[in-house]
Amino acid sequence: MAQSKQKSGAGSLIELVTIVVVALGLALAIQAFVVKPYRIPSASMVPTLRVHQRVLVDRITMHFSDPGRGDIVVFKPPLGADSDQCGVSHPPDQACPAPTSQKSSSNFIKRVVGLPGDHLKVIRGRVWINGKQLKEPYIRPDPSCEICELPREITVPPDHFFMMGDNRGESDDSRTWGPVPKKWIIGKAFFTYWPPKRIGTL
Predict the structure, then answer these.
(1) Of 36, 76, 104, 110, catalytic
(2) Best exposed site among 45, 79, 177, 202 by fewest CB in 10 Å?
């Protein structure tokens, strides 16, 4: 009888360990391939997202469709983005038209404002697409910042997306280091879960 109880206890322990291992494996797989949490590192997306706010990023959708204008995405910026390096030389009154050829190891989060083929310029911190001002009720404009007046148009290259932060005067973005290839986009931010008072969809 005692031996039977010992076997039963050992079986329960093995079952518990198996459940824990499987659960951890599923959690890691979901984070790696499906949904990943991301912490906002800077004020570039204020007022939409604040420093240290946390969001969930959908890593699946980008494999089957392109991001849309207005989507908030996490991506690898071009190598040299941290030092405002553009991939080509360009006039000072024009946004960077092309990125460097390699991607950075960092993760950035910005909003998609320009799609492939768009003719894009920035006037007083606001985006103009194909000659029309983009409606951007979510931004914090800053007409006086150094990269807020770029009236010379660029054409967004095929399979590239132009990214900008909502906090136009405090964002290091595609204006200085160029559009981002689709293959460098990690996923779309779709939900904010921290702090509790800001829980909701994006």
Answers:
(1) 110
(2) 202
Q: pLDDT digits over 148-174, tens only?
A: 999 999 999 999 999 999 999 999 999
Could you confirm whether 110 is annotated as catalytic?
yes
Q: In sequence order, what are the residues at sequence separation of 6 or more whose Cβ sits closer than 8 angstroms to the Cβ of residue 201?
A: 190, 191, 192
Tell how many helices (H) and how many strands (E) occur in the chain: 2, 12
Active-site choice (36, 44, 76, 171): 44
Question: 160-164 and 150-155: which strand pairing?
Answer: unpaired
What is the topology classification, in CATH, of domain 36-201?
Umud Fragment, subunit A (2.10.109)
- Report the 3 state secondary structure along 29-50: HHHHHCEEEEECCCCCCCCCCC
**Predicted TM-score of the model (pTM):** 0.84
The single residue listed with the structure tokens 């991939």 is 87
Active site residue 103: no
